[in-house]
């Protein structure tokens, strides 16, 4: 008898627990006395979104924003599940990494609200062209631009000085290699540490030369001249023994902390990482532009950055759009984002005094200003639905050429694998 | 005699080395939870306990609401273990102590189903739950794996060792089937039940991919999903992450400690035979 | 034999209903999916295309090879170690048994987030493991960036994580070996090693087989370690079938292809389990 009662009470508890929280709020579209919208975003964006919602509420008291915090990989997994199920389980909008947006839109165009149709044209001149291109598909925009990742070479000024290297003299990749040898000889640190589980640096060098992994018509750029040049940078550094492989984000950050590298090539977001994770090295870091490839004067690129997509399935499409336009084009909000470690892509905000301010961590240099100037020079790169395949193959090329494979051979093998997959 | 002593010492030394290897990452994790995030990557590693535990805990609680997460995880895992044990034990009993049509076919199907990689069935399962309107519920976390072939297999092995003659004798005495099961067979299965419960609990407690895709609001998150949400793009507060992991590890250790007594108590197995 | 013929089905009913709904249905759906491909947001039937594409897929070939290498090396080492530890802890005279038992089991409860952070730091070139080996004049070893050592790291990490788990299964099973057997052997003058080989192992045979099959299945689906430590690299040296299925489905939106890979895995596991059962006699 005791068991029976226990069993029944468990079942009751179970059913009670299950019915809890099972209803979605805010699906009442007829009256709109209350507009409840849910957005997915990564952690550093959450406080900015919440503050922006407070500001927005002053004029739109009916608007309630709920931000679900999750990491980028998780957003991708959940997006994929939702998209494969005709939009089930998706929120009203999500902050997505730029290089993935076109992939989603190509495969599931009905799921995403067309931002151009909602009227985003009028804001076009307020964002850099490359940023808008990166979230466009067949001429229409599918996301509202937010932060960006202008690239710089972060370098250890103290190690440079110790080796007698002057950062301003590094103009080409060749200069960079030679400086690297000197630094290694004197200080023992490698010139570059990179995350060898990831394609970050490869992607940057490709986009510096104005190329993504695929042309818009779908042809692979993996075995193009640009890709060979990129792979050669890796093999050249391997030959000179000035490159350090850090498998994974954590190992890579550890290599910065541990002074195993004199430079890091990333987007501006590294400022936040350094300040938080490597406080001891305050004053030692500085930033310079990318070295140029032979026959080109481009020294700029973009890496990372994210934008807001709105889902067609949302009952509050227009309201969310209106809020996000406010978010993206309010100088006040964008300044908040900056203080939170994000680099805005909204052009008018670069006039802000914040950009001219010296940054203590970087020996009181105004590094934000440096990156703001970079924003105007970044070449446009289009992303396509197969980009994640291209990135994965780039990771393999990096590994192969560092082990001594000829760059041309390696990229052509990678290209073969891509062709087999996409045709 | 001396040789025996040396043997003994060598044995202890080896066991202690294995012990250190097993436990070191946990010690480090705990140290990480008491230090500032910048101490995570120092070389040589920071191995001394710091003073930031409370601060990290407060930050963690602000970002994920740790008590709610703890409740979700405990509720889901415990409910799951109880129900799954019931379902799997009944099935295992039928598969080991009864003769009936389709017995082998059913058992082999259970076993074969374990071989499908979960990554492949995740999406159809998600679609099923979204059609049922059950996304973001405790039910969705608990139901899919209630019939867990591994547990059926484990319990069946143990039932097979139980003497059928005892069951038949009870039947002759006129006992009902449920009564036989609950009052004659089950009591001697405590060690097996304890072992199975540990595995089921562990699996559900650490389950990540399915809760991740099926949950969509923060107040439903379980530990793995909540911890994963702390991993940002460029900024990760390792202090918070490590506190979270430490807290998540405690219940599972307690669960193990409580139940292991039952199945390593000795004697039990032979008492039946 | 006096029970009604419906009794066993009633015992089975809850399991069968749940199994049909939440296991068989998704398996069937993904089987259908393996003959389809995503085209502009909806799936179209493409016959055996996905399976044919697999034949020319060098990454898939590598994934199979890696998985088999890891399987052949890791599973025996881990199970052997687990047996030895279980045997040591089964000794009533050993002090601190409970302490060791919990310690060895701990790794199995590691959360994946912790796992990926701690191991990738420890296995770095300048990490604590190389520092330790340095004392003995070994290394430094590129644990995660050379193709040989990356596989070795995966094997070590898996062994670290699952040995204690298997040890606990063995320990539980050892309780069922009658003590008299050992006593009799002792009287006959058999040493500890002989007892282990001639009493413990034969008596544990069904359990060893069970753990071998379970380990085989989970190795063939291996995902956590390569995903968290190496991302399949360097240059696919640690690409596994589980990771490849995930990449195809979740990164390339190609669930049709991912399902085809999954079904090839199923066939492989079925064949392997069949042989394991054959080799070790009846169940």
UniProtKB/TrEMBL annotation, chain A:
Pfam families: SBP_bac_8 (PF13416). PROSITE patterns: PROKAR_LIPOPROTEIN. Residues 403-423 are annotated as: Disordered. InterPro entries: Bact_solute-bd_prot1, SBP. It comes from the Bacteria. PANTHER family: ARABINOSE-BINDING PROTEIN-RELATED (PTHR43649), SUGAR BINDING SECRETED PROTEIN (PTHR43649:SF32). This is Lactose/L-arabinose transport system substrate-binding protein.
Automatic annotation (TrEMBL), chain B:
PROSITE patterns: ABC_TM1 (PS50928). It is a multi-pass membrane protein. Its main location: membrane. The chain crosses the membrane at residues 12-30, 69-93, 105-126, 138-159, 180-205, 225-258. The keyword Protein biosynthesis does not apply. InterPro entries: MetI-like (IPR000515), MetI-like_sf (IPR035906). Residues 70-259 form the ABC transmembrane type-1 domain. It is found in: Cell membrane. It comes from the Bacteria. SUPFAM superfamilies: MetI-like (SSF161098). One of its GO terms (cellular component) is plasma membrane. Keywords: Cell membrane, Membrane, Transmembrane, Transmembrane helix, Transport. Belongs to the binding-protein-dependent transport system permease family. This is Lactose/L-arabinose transport system permease protein. It comes from Gracilibacillus halotolerans.
From TrEMBL, chain C:
The chain crosses the membrane at residues 63-86, 98-122, 128-150, 204-223, 255-275. Signal peptide: none annotated. It is found in: Cell membrane. One of its GO terms (cellular component) is plasma membrane. It holds the Pfam family BPD_transp_1. The keyword Transport applies. It comes from the Bacteria. Residues 64-276 form the ABC transmembrane type-1 domain. It is a multi-pass membrane protein. Gene3D superfamilies: MetI-like. InterPro entries: ABC_transporter_permease, MetI-like, MetI-like_sf. One of its GO terms (biological process) is transmembrane transport. This is Lactose/L-arabinose transport system permease protein. The lineage of its organism: Bacteria, Bacillati, Bacillota, Bacilli, Bacillales.
